Amino acid sequence: MSKKDVYIEKLKSQLDEWSVEIDHLETQLRKTDAELRVKYESHIAALKVKREEARGKLAELQHSAGDAWLELQKGADEAWEAIKKAVAEARKKF
């Protein structure tokens, strides 16, 4: 397995974990009162946007040829760091 394949599998796995966590937070949100729900719905929406950005970066990596993926790796790392922080913040708030 190439370094690119290992890197992509790592990202896929982490993205799957975050998707499960976002779904869990969303389920918890549904159980809260209306006032809190309104307050935190925007946080969940922001997490979903970051998740889609991360999926986009992953797709770019998957479709890159040769060593071009190395150039895309920085953008993917930045997207992953952003969603990682957003999920951690959401965990604290919920």
Explain what this protein looks like in three dimensions.
- The structure is a single chain.
- With 94 residues, the chain is an all-alpha fold.
- It has one domain.
- It contains three helices and no strands.
- Helix 1 packs antiparallel against helix 2, helix 1 packs parallel to helix 3 and helix 2 packs antiparallel against helix 3.
- It is elongated and about 50 Å long.
- The mean pLDDT is 86.
Quick summary:
The chain has 94 residues and is mostly helical. It is built from three helices and no strands. The protein has helices at 3-30, 34-63, 68-93.
Task: Describe how the helices and strands are arranged.
Blueprint: H1 3-30, H2 34-63, H3 68-93
Helix pairs in contact: 1-2, 1-3, 2-3
Helix content: over 70%
Largest pleated sheet: none
Judging from the principal axes of the Cα atoms, what is the shape?
elongated
Give the termini separation.
39 Å
Structural class: mainly alpha
Q: Please, how many helices?
A: 3
How much of the sequence is in beta strands?
Answer: under 5%
pLDDT < 50 runs, ≥5 residues:
none
* CA-atom Rg in angstroms: 15 Å
Integer tally of domains: 1
Task: Encode the helix/strand succession as letters.
Answer: HHH
Global mean pLDDT: 86
- Number-wise, the strands total 0
Assembly annotation: single chain
